[in-house]
Design a protein that fits this description.
With 143 residues, this protein is mainly α. 83% of the residues lie in helices and 0% in strands. It is rod-shaped and about 85 Å long.
């Protein structure tokens, strides 16, 4: 499938964002819930362990708050996996989009190499690629 550059590069970026939105939401939710549960567990474990005035069933509370803390850590780890999945999906889309573009092969290969070498700049490089693709398309149409 050859992509037309009739749409702007911003439309292309928005298309990626819509496609990746479920990963983003799940990752944010997992991280936030995990941090809250972990903080709750640590604070309450501190109170249960070091507050001598409490006359409660300490072992049961220690177990409960330890489980809550473990659940918090698990959610934080899940958010890391979600972030990695997000990056893989994003990279896959970008590579597929560049590969199926109508620009010269030399330019496609150049951007593919740069995307591999500079993982932190993938979105910026992809936007530059889309802009260059639009420029080439407008030059072809003006001839």
């Amino acid at each position: 499938m050859i992509y037309s550059s009739a749409g702007s590069s911003q439309n292309e970026i928005n298309r990626i964002r819509r496609k990746l939105l479920p990963f983003i939401v799940k990752g944010i939710f997992s991280a936030l819930a995990g941090m809250l549960l972990l903080a709750l567990a640590v604070i309450n474990l501190y109170v249960v362990l070091f507050e001598p005035a409490l006359q409660l069933d300490r072992e049961s509370l220690q177990l409960l708050f330890s489980v809550i803390g473990g659940l918090g850590v698990a959610l934080i780890i899940e958010s890391v996996y979600q972030r990695n999945a997000l990056q893989k999906q994003k990279l896959s889309y970008i590579k597929k989009r560049i590969k199926n573009s109508h620009v010269p092969e030399v330019l496609r290969d150049s951007y593919m190499v740069r995307i591999k070498q500079e993982p932190g700049n993938r979105t910026t490089l992809f936007q530059a690629f889309l802009q260059e693709e639009e420029n080439l398309q407008s030059k072809r149409q003006s001839r």
